[in-house]
Amino acid sequence: MPIHGRPLLDYWLASIQQMGTLDTIVNLHYLKREVSKYLRRPCYAGWIRTFEEHELLGTAGSLRAIANQYRTSDKTLLVIHADNWSDCDLSAFLDFHRSAVDRGILMTMMTFDTDAPTQCGIVETDSNNTLIGFHEKQAEPPGNRANAAVYAMEPALVDWLNQHPTVNDISTQLIPEFMGRICCWHHSGIHRDIGTVPSLLAAQCDPPHPNPPQLGDDWQHRFNQHQIHRELERLTSEHGGAYCV
Fold first, then answer.
1. CA–CA dist 206, 4 (Å, integer)
2. Which of 6, 15, 2 is nearest to 189 (CA)?
3. Helix (H, G, I), strand (E, B), or coil: what is residue 97?
4. Which pLDDT does position 242 carry in this prediction?
5. 2-238 falls under which CATH superfamily?
6. What is the CA radius of gyration of the chain?
């Protein structure tokens, strides 16, 4: 899905590259051939690897499998659910996590304020931003501060996942086990799940991303001619707006 004419994944990878964090793994499952072609661009050579999830393992299950295959269990992991459009500052997020580790925190969760709290995991925190309550997609959640599905995780969490092979979901199984050892870092800017047409169209008119990708290769030129752009123009017209690029 394009945002301002670029694939959403472009923006996440540009933000990671700007940090200098060049050991990146992209999980593949749906449309894996198309995503693999996208990642075989010269700009991604040498710092992006892939993990093919042949059957869905769950968010925690895929994390366990990836960490074990690539032997990352001794490192702090930055875990991103990249189906969200966000202008978050990943460097500030990781700096906050590193300072929190000194007080026994094992995981930092990025949060944002949502206008659809029943569709999100809603958080409760204490005065130190430590997670003390978590409500995953409940009918009447206590607030609208939500899990942004971006995490920094210490190696102890991967060790715990290996000791609990039936745990397959981060939100419903991992997070509840570490209440009090998870802290929250709030992102006050843009954070959208673009999984609905209105949200996808709204994202096209959001302000430009602070880390815009600078990619003008053959893949991008072909993508510029893709049918998805004409489809977005049609949908925008049907919804009474103008397609912003």
1. 9
2. 15
3. helix
4. 56
5. Spore Coat Polysaccharide Biosynthesis Protein SpsA; Chain A (3.90.550.10)
6. 18
Question: ∠63-64-70 over CA atoms, to 5°?
Answer: 85
Distance CA 78, CA 108 (A): 10
Report the pLDDT value the prediction gives residue 109, as an integer from 0 to 100: 98
Per-domain boundaries in the chain:
2-238
Structure confidence by residue, pLDDT tens digits, 59-80: 999 999 999 998 876 789 999 9
d(CA 97, CA 108): 6
Q: Are 89 and 111 within 8 A, CB to CB?
A: no
Q: What is the pLDDT of residues 129-148, one digit of tens each?
A: 999 999 999 999 999 999 99
Helix, strand or coil, per DSSP, at residue 38 = helix
Is residue 55 over pLDDT 90? yes
